[in-house]
């Protein structure tokens, strides 16, 4: 909606946008976004999703006086257009199957800050995304700083992740694979 575009664009005038998309539940671990916002005053958070942890997150935002740097947009029927506004896509989940939001982030050529989970490491190498250790906040801050400070390295990571998207997850690749399967049966 136009109202979303206006709100996000206003934030982008003054802040680097960290974007999250997903259910607002404890397992998704979005409290770590608050830690990033508290450490880096040039950040803002655009959050798509709703869930049982939403009020807790909103309370933390309010307690820490971060309301001017956070947009809770709720659920949207199609989250893909929002990636264009994100400077960093953040996915701090404590456990997960392979998240489709990662495919969208890769296809939109966004740097991905990601909890180091075996499911992700089996698909995305360390030179494609920025993994942090869930049990070490300093690891989170180091990886975030790396994304912003070494743009050449970040661009290489983005390109390698995009190549994985094109070669494994794109609609074209899925179509080719389904056609081969259909043809062989």
Detailed description of the structure:
The protein has a 6-stranded parallel beta sheet with strand order 3-2-1-4-5-6, with helices on both faces. The chain has helices at 2-12, 31-39, 54-63, 100-107, 118-121, 137-149, 151-169, 171-184, and strands spanning 16-21, 43-48, 70-74, 88-91, 112-115, 130-132. Helix 3 links the parallel strand 2 and strand 3. The protein contains 8 helices and 6 strands; from the N terminus they run αβαβαββαβαβααα. Helix 7 packs parallel to helix 8. With 185 residues, the chain is an alpha/beta fold. The model has no long low-confidence stretch (mean pLDDT 93).
| Assembly context of the chains | single chain
Q: How would a crystallographer describe the biggest sheet?
A: 6 strands, parallel
Shape: globular
Q: Overall pLDDT, averaged?
A: 93
Q: Layout of SSEs?
A:
Elements: H1 2-12, E1 16-21, H2 31-39, E2 43-48, H3 54-63, E3 70-74, E4 88-91, H4 100-107, E5 112-115, H5 118-121, E6 130-132, H6 137-149, H7 151-169, H8 171-184
Parallel strand pairs: 1-2, 1-4, 2-3, 4-5, 5-6
Helix pairs in contact: 7-8
Offer a concise description of the structure:
This protein has 185 residues and is an alpha/beta fold. 48% of the residues lie in helices and 15% in strands.
Question: Which key phrases capture this entry?
Answer:
48% helix; 185 residues; six-stranded parallel β-sheet; single chain; alpha/beta; 8 helices
